[in-house]
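We were asked to recover a plausible sequence for a given structure. The inputs and outputs are reproduced exactly as logged, with field labels preserved.

PROBLEM: sequence recovery
POSITIONS: 165
GIVEN STRUCTURE:
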C-alpha cells in the first residue's frame, strides 16, 4: 500500500516489471526515442475524483519501479506534478503506455484530463498496452493541518456541593 499526506510529494515503489507487457526486444528498432512509460490513475473512494499523471522520473529497477510525484498547485499530466486534495483511501492503477515519441516534448496543455485524452490510441500519442499494477493508497492529513474549535469555560468562583437528602 502506498501512503502519503495531502498536498505533499510522495514516492510509489511498485512491482511493475513482473507484469510488464512489452519487453525491450519488442520495441521497434526504427524508433530510437521509443519508450515504455507508466500512466498512473488515482480514484478517490469517497468522491470518485480521478487524477491522471505520468511520474517523472520513472526509475525502473530489477525488482521494483520507483515513481516520483510532486505536489503542485497547477498539476501537469506529463511532468509528475499532481494535486491530491482529499484525505482518505484512493485506488491506484498503473498502465503501461508505449510511446514512439517522447510525451514530454508536447506543448504545455493545461486542459483537464479526460479518459480519451490520457488513454489515447494513436502511436504518435502513445498506445496503452495494459494494466500492470493496481491497489489501494492511503492519503492522510498533514500533521498539524486539522482545525479544532473549542469553547473555554471559566471555572466558577466558588465550589458547588451536591447534597443528597
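RECOVERED SEQUENCE:
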Amino acid at each position: 500500500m502506498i501512503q502519503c499526506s495531502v498536498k505533499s510529494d510522495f514516492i510509489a515503489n511498485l512491482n511493475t516489471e513482473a507484469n510488464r507487457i512489452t519487453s525491450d526486444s519488442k520495441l521497434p528498432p526504427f524508433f530510437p526515442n521509443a519508450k515504455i512509460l507508466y500512466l498512473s490513475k488515482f480514484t478517490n473512494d469517497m468522491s470518485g475524483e480521478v487524477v491522471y499523471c505520468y511520474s517523472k522520473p520513472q526509475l525502473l529497477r530489477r525488482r521494483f519501479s520507483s515513481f516520483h510525484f510532486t505536489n503542485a498547485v497547477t498539476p501537469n499530466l506529463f511532468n509528475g506534478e499532481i494535486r491530491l486534495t482529499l484525505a482518505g483511501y484512493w485506488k491506484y492503477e498503473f498502465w503501461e503506455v508505449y510511446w514512439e515519441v517522447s510525451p514530454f516534448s508536447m506543448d504545455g496543455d493545461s486542459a483537464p484530463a479526460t479518459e480519451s485524452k490520457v488513454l489515447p490510441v494513436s502511436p504518435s500519442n502513445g498506445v496503452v498496452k495494459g494494466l500492470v499494477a493496481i491497489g489501494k493508497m492511503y492519503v492522510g492529513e498533514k500533521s498539524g493541518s486539522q482545525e479544532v474549535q473549542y469553547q473555554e469555560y471559566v471555572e466558577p468562583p466558588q465550589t458547588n456541593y451536591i447534597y443528597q437528602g
